[in-house]
Design goal:
Largest sheet: 5 strands, mixed, barrel
Shape: elongated
Number of helices: 3
Strand order of the largest sheet: 2-4-5-7-6
Helix content: 25-40%
Number of domains: 2
CATH class of the largest domain: Mainly Beta
Distance between the termini: 68 Å
CATH architecture of the largest domain: Beta Barrel
Strand content: 25-35%
CATH superfamily of the largest domain: Nucleic acid-binding proteins
Order of helices and strands: HEHEEEEEEH
Radius of gyration: 23 Å
Number of strands: 7
């Protein structure tokens, strides 16, 4: 019915398609595991369930909320509607200060407490990430 060349071409096309599909699935799976979602304190307050996945919380550091003890830093992130307490172990960036924008990456313990593994403040004092601006309602 079909010649040997046609069967080999068909087999080659099938193998290429299967390889492309598997590669796409693997790439999407690895991206899914490494995606970190940004949320404001107000969005965290309205969460229905608190998962174990890593998230980023962004907003402004509340005035008079930073307390430093040995190697731990406690502070409050606010979006001027809601607040969340953050604890972080390690050195904070030079631009980390009260009244400035901050994004903390880590794990949510409950709706009021966040354990940060990384503080992101690699910008000048006037820059605010677009997500934080949007969450705060500024343009």
């Amino acid at each position: 019915m079909y010649g040997r060349k046609v069967k080999l071409r068909f087999l080659f096309v099938v193998i290429v398609l299967i390889t492309l599909i598997l590669t796409t699935i693997l790439v999407l799976k690895s991206l899914e595991e490494n995606i970190v979602y940004f949320q404001s304190p107000s969005e965290i307050k309205s969460l229905t369930e608190i998962g174990k996945s890593k998230i980023r919380v962004g907003g402004m550091v509340k005035k008079n909320s930073i307390s430093i003890s040995s190697n731990k830093v406690n502070f409050i992130i606010t979006d001027f509607k809601n607040e969340i307490n953050v604890i972080y172990s390690g050195a904070v960036p030079n631009l980390f200060a009260e009244g400035k924008g901050v994004v903390a990456e880590g794990f949510l313990k409950d709706r009021n407490f966040f354990s940060a593994t990384k503080i992101l403040a690699k910008h000048d004092e006037n820059y605010m990430p677009p997500e934080v601006k949007e969450a705060l309602g500024e343009k």
